[in-house]
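Hi L.,

You mentioned the student needs an example of a multi-chain input paired with its predicted structure. This one should do, with 1270 residues in total across all chains.
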Amino acid sequence: MRSSSFSGAARLLRPAAFLGLGLLLSGCGPDFDPPDQLHSLRVLGVQKDKPYAKPGETVTLQMLWEDASPKADGRPIDLKWTPPCFDPAGDLYYGCFDDPSIFGGMFGSGDSTSFKMRDDIISSRPPPTDRRNTAYGVAYVFFAACAGTLTPDPSVGSGALPVACLDSSGKALGSDDFVAGYTAVYSYQEFGNENPVISGFEFNGQKLPDSAICLGADCQMKAEAPALDPADPANGIDCTTTPPDPRCIATCADDGKSSCHGYGIRPLVDRSDPANQEQDAVSVKQTGHGSGEQMWIDYYTDGGGFKSPVRLLNDATAGWNDNYGTEFYAPKDAKISRVWALVHDNRGGVAWAGISLKSQ
Amino acid sequence: MVLAPCRVSAVVVLAVLSQSGLAFAQASDTGAVPGGSSGAAVKPAEPAKDAPNKPVIVPPELIHFEHADYPPEALKAGLQAELVLKLTVDKEGNVTKADVPKPVGSGFDEAAISAALKFKYKPATRNGQPVAAITLYRYAFTLTPQAPAAAPPPAPTTGNLTGVVRLADTNSPLAGALVTLTLPSGSAQSITTDEAGKWQAKDLPAGRYKVHVEAPGFQAVENQEEVAAGEETEATYRLAPVTDGIEITVQGERPPREVTRRTIERREIERIPGTSGDALRSLQSLPGVARPPGLAGLLIVRGSSPQDTQVYVDGTLVPLIYHFGGLSSVVPTELLDRIDFYPGNFSAKYGRVDGGIVDVGLRSPDTQCTGDYGVATDKKGCFHGMAQVDLIDGRLMLQGPLPAKDWTFAVAGRRSWIDVWLKPVLESAGSSVTAAPVYYDYQAIVDHKTAASRFSLRFFGSDDKFRIIVTDPAAQDPAFGGALSFGTSFYRAQALYETNLTHSISSTSMLSAGRDNVGFSVGNFLFSLDAYNIYARHEFGFKVAPGVKFNAGLDFAIAPYEVTVRFPQPPRPGEPDPGPFASRPPQESHEKATVFRPAWYGEAELQPTNRLRIIPGVRVDYARDSGHADAAPRAVARYDLIKGTDPERPDQQRLRTTLKGGAGLFYQPPQFQETNPVFGTPGLYSNKSVHYSLGVEQEFSEHVELSLEGFYKALTNQVSRSPNASGAFTYNNIGTGSVIGLEALLKYKPGKRFFGWIAYTLSRSVRRDSPSSPEYLFQYDQTHNLIMLGSYRLGRGWEFGARFRVVSGSLDTPVLGSPALPALYAADSGAYSPLQAQAFSKRLPLFHQLDMRVDKRWQFRTWRFSTYLDIQNVYNNAAVEGLSYNYNYSKQSYQTGIPIIPSLGLRGEF
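Structure written out for the whole complex:
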């Protein structure tokens, strides 16, 4: 086998060493708004019904988004998708920027779209040089959410997304009103992947009734998710009952800071569910032994805050982390706060659930 | 600390040292002087040029005297004469050269030279190691008076021995010094010097006396003096202050083979503020070395990448130099004999790299004895120990003699104790700590040293490891969570043998075997390397004629290794951010092979005149893994416009002016991931560069020297890459670049109280990925780097130092600004991917920082205790180390570096 050098290989340890150092010596930086606290138009996740798709299969994508901007107030959001970008150079998303057929105005619309994986997505590529690596293909699908009008913008410079979000006066909107992103759908001939499964939600030590929880597409803002619609008293949260609804919490003057009382919160993820205990087949083939998925949970809210916005659910080698929940800190205002938990795996799978909390 | 490159030959250096106030007295009792009643006068040599911080020097001792024939013409004419001989004594004690700087004529010069060439000396020693030396010898030719006709008075049987003791650096008389005279019979007499530093011993029986002079706080000296009946012998001794250790510099037999070699003395290493006494960290205060970000221990030399500079321990490559990337060196300062740093244009002895070279030499165990209160002596056979603790680690060292003659040993070890305080910190942050961060290193040395050779066995190594489970992954890239383990370890068993096979052939051999073990994993990503390294070096030196020496050597590296990598394809510097690693499928490469990289080199050291030195050389490297061979010719030259020693007046020093320059070809093989079939492109050629440099060195005084050097590096065949349509990357050798710069070093060499320097580097480093792509500033480009530092001994064991640095800000790659979106949401990982502007196009603000250090030492009768307080960033400057962004890169701010950090250390030694 031809390789460079042991000394060159040894040099590879330097970045690792510096990573270690970085853990020991954290730098000093400003405190920005935490990513888990929603104050603008945000896309939180894109779920594919087939995180790993075989050639020729149709993949449906569902977006979870929220307009938490103070300017929201029912303003229309333009949601669009691009056609898939198959096997870009280097398998890198920015390899698609130069393809005019991707961003040339062929946008689907709405929070869901689907596409068909190309039949030769794998066969058109050269086989892997190492037999332990599995042949694959990849398709990128770009999406955008805009509080104005989305339009192609080929005039942007190199490395920029050739799409603009314009308000009614033609002025380009910024990051608070315009989110663009991508999702990658990998295609293996022999492997598939299931999205994680969320079976419920637990708040402050109590399992919430199914009626208080939204799952998947039901959580979308525009969807008719009764438990999450604060404007509907019939499905709202009644804090006058005895015992009180566990979703009723006290406001906190420190507005979601860690000095507030922490309410335990977590989605219920059954580790015995096969979808939550999948093997990372690509790694298994590479290593020859079992290797689980790397799984984590992203927590979001539009009111209050969390002790830890990202929690480990399963480690590929160390296994399941039972303590995957976090603590919720109440907002200072009396309001209905929406809370989401997105369970990710490292192979493009995701599932989400949401609840509402009433602070008073 | 930066020393000007050592450009004087070993002989000259030892000449200076040998003139440090030691008198070489000889007397002749009969024969050599007609009349048979007179002897050689006793006169001291000239004062030492610079005695502080020098090791214990023992001058050559005359053990065989040869009488000179009285010149017949002079005898006939009744002439007498007195002359001074300048003798060159080699390591074997032979007089290889004898000159009379001030000829007296009448055949006296020739007669004295003829006799002196037959003298035999016990060679001079430097810390016990035989070295060549120049010594002065005063030879008197006197006529013996005619025998009286009457009965002669009784011949005298005693003589007087008198002298004066002075300070080596100021020549001031030293009162209170204890002078001890010892006869061969063992009887001794002690005298204390008076206020004028004088002492005298009268009516001593004729014979040879050992004279030992000592004074608290000064290095003792010892010499042999001859007392002749009826004569008074005078001697002057000059004592140098006790120093903290030996000078870490190469001054032995090896002459310079590079344009620039910067050497740091031990006192400088231990006292440079902001380094906590760490040897290799002190390199970052030298010109040509860029300031690395934060506390990182990177060596960024003349606009090159850190991986372009290699670190050796006595010729053996070591895979890392700092624990945990920068906390402290893997070889403790206490075991270092020298640090040679070559910022470029280095000797053909070194290769496989086109940046710089750091060659660290382990010291021979120190068995030199000290008297009460640390007074140095030239006695050997004593043990020394040291214990030190600071906020990061604790260390122990013991060294001393072994029962067998000429064998010595040293053992040392160090263990960090950051785990004690870091584990609770990590656990409070929500991590489960399986193995708290810890490092240790160890060294063992067994040395056998004689006048003709040195044989040394070493075993040294290092181990860093920690393992935690991060249950709060980073929101920016959740892949970096979960089980995170990191471990690096290496060890080396090394044998070193140096000898002179003949008077003109020297041999140096090094063989080492060891193991590197590197492991890093996070989640399902993994890097694992296990390599068994064998390094072999051998060099012959042939002195074929005066001023002509050839060096020929080999440098072999053999390494069976096994490496496993499971990572997504990483980006190269300057490439757009590929997005979070979290959801990208890893690529795996498992490789088990043997690297074999032999190299051969040859150099000629030519000295056509005593001012000019030219060293052409060539190195041929072969890499079996790539199948490529590289031939690299190199040449350097130095020319003394003004020599430090006037050939006409060798006893006087002058301010040296030296021009220097060089050009050479250097190759560096591609890195592992660049030629790996999975991650790279097999068959790549080596990176190629041509180094040019031109400079001048000018002494302004005994202590002050300025060095200016301009350099230019032309980089071609640089490994570059671009993504291809098949989803992989294609590497190539079409990258180019250049580095141009100027280095200035104004240095005050360590004196009795002060050392310091001002170092300035101006440079520009650029790269171009392909002929058609734009040129851009290299990631580690640093336009200005100004360092001012100094340390002053206040007395009573106190020393105070400060370092101030002003450096151009680092380069950063900014994200795109409005109206373009600064980032895309990578939905699969729940994090954003920045959309970046031109790579390294933003210069961060100027860096400036003041570091201060205070040392206090208490000297007790049998041991010494010292403590230091080293404060980094005294005025708490919020230096900008990078840009930080909010979650979607729409807001940015400066990431600032370390705040004020005090570090306290305690040390005891005997």
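You could point out the following to them. Residues 1-54, 146-151, 243-255 of chain B have pLDDT under 50 and may be disordered. The radius of gyration of chain B is 31 Å.

Best wishes,
N.
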